[in-house]
Amino acid sequence: MAHGLRPDSDSTLAASAADLLGALRAAPPLTHCITNSVVTGFTANVLLALGAAPAMVDIVGEAREFAGVASGLLVNLGTPTPEQRAASLEAAAGAAEAGTPWVLDPVAIGALPVRTELARALVQRRPTAVRGNASEILALAGLGSGGRGVDAIDSTDAAADAAALIARRHGSVVAVSGPVDLVTDGERAYRIANGTPLLTRVTGGGCALGAVMAAFLGTARTTGDGALEAVAAASLVYEIAAERAAAHTSGPGGFAVALLDALDALAPGDLPAAAQVEGGAR
Q1: What tens digit of pLDDT does each residue of 96-135 get?
Q2: Domains of the chain: which residue ranges?
Q3: Domain 6-192+201-278 class in CATH
Q4: Which residues pair with 189 in a beta bridge?
Q5: Which of 67, 170, 239, 278 has an alpha carbon within 20 to 30 A of 246's alpha carbon?
Q6: Which residues, in sequence order, are CB contacts of 13 under 8 Å at separation 6+?
Q7: CA–CA separation, 211 vs 272, rounded Å?
């Protein structure tokens, strides 16, 4: 765990996650996604299975207005075409004006200059949350050169200090995805050990998690829960569903379908017994 971070209780997170999941399904959050062309359909289906309402609005002239009426916003830089780059900046401005919580997913930044420059411009706009793999988080903090395309070459532990630095510098919750997810606001942290390696063998496994975080942040905006709890709850719910999906399939093709079914079937009451949340000082 990064120096100075305080671990939080697994039972507290499981209870918060259960409450937030129930609230999300009772009032589905309108989740605005500007995301990459490779994963748009999968991301929308993940949100629908969860119980949220997806909207893939990435057109200049619409993105700013829509971000103002949405419950939560995802800006994913996986395929940053000129139109999407402009729409992302527009949507971030609209979210700031309306107080809409939003998630930045700086996909494959570091070695690729266009998306790296855009990610650094967007993080200055103080996203509610940043989600990435360890190499992406290190690159965003200026402490690494990025991974191998979308694949991390660094461990979650190696990015812990970078995550805390980004959180403190920009007032964001930072989620580092990996075999154990780290979610921190720079002062407190959760480590979530649920999940399955099959998530790395399905296109959109990580990108869809960013959308789930945006949905949970949209719900937390109405329930009064904090951003740290909402982002960590999103990770916990998604990873537990992924574990359950993996138990019913032997490969990535079946897993992608099983994940949607598992998200749909997951009940708030299932979370406390399944949660694997680690704490302890580094």
Answers
A1: 999 999 999 999 999 899 999 999 999 999 999 999 999 9
A2: 6-192+201-278
A3: alpha beta
A4: 7, 184
A5: 278
A6: 190, 229, 232, 233, 236, 275, 277
A7: 23
